[in-house]
Amino acid sequence: MVARGEMLGDHHLWRKGYPYEGSSRIPFLLHGPQIPAGAVRDEIVELRDVMPTLLACAGVTPPEDIDGGSVLPLLRNDNAPWRRHLHGEHTLLEQSLQWILRGRHKYVWLSATGEEQLFDLATDPQELHDLSADSRYPQILSECRNLLIDALKDRGEGPASMP
């Protein structure tokens, strides 16, 4: 169940902040004169993209030093450049919950226990089957782990504390 990022019992959890789809997958909907009718995209869009998108819709050039980007180019051009992965994080229950979303795969790292999880969202959209120990996925696990290590390299919960 996906409902505004509140989990609502998904994974028997009831609040925002978890790395699972019930908390992190929220539709990003736009409507207006610059938005092609019926356009649907699967790229990873996040909160940091809202401001530059709204500024671009208003004809204002977004600041260059922001992390997000306007989604308008995605709606106009199938080949527009866009991020290939997303690093998400939240502090909850005295630990850092970190995740990498890359294409159809999501990698999760729980800092308190060091537990890793890997999900194939195309075949398991409810994230019920952890593939982190599956012998068919060591390369994907390693690639996602390395993306997270790179994202955390200058932080306390970074590579030294990871598997």
Overall average residue pLDDT: 83
How many angstroms does the end-to-end distance come to?
31 Å
> Low-confidence runs (pLDDT<50, min 5 residues)?
none
Largest sheet: spatial strand order? 1-2-3-4
**Count the helices. How many?**
4
What is the percent of helical residues? 10-25%
What is the number of beta strands?
4
Percent of residues in beta strands? 15-25%
Whole-angstrom Rg: 17 Å
Secondary-structure blueprint of this entry?
Blueprint: H1 21-24, H2 50-57, H3 72-76, E1 86-92, E2 95-102, E3 105-110, E4 115-120, H4 138-152
Antiparallel strand pairs: 1-2, 2-3, 3-4
Describe this protein's structure:
The two termini are 31 Å apart. This protein has 163 residues and is α+β, with helices and mostly antiparallel strands. The radius of gyration is 17 Å and the shape is globular. The chain has a 4-stranded antiparallel beta sheet with strand order 1-2-3-4, with helices on one face. It has helices at residues 21-24, 50-57, 72-76, 138-152, and strands spanning 86-92, 95-102, 105-110, 115-120. Helix content is 20%, strand content 17%. The mean pLDDT is 83. The protein is built from 4 helices and 4 strands, in the order αααββββα.
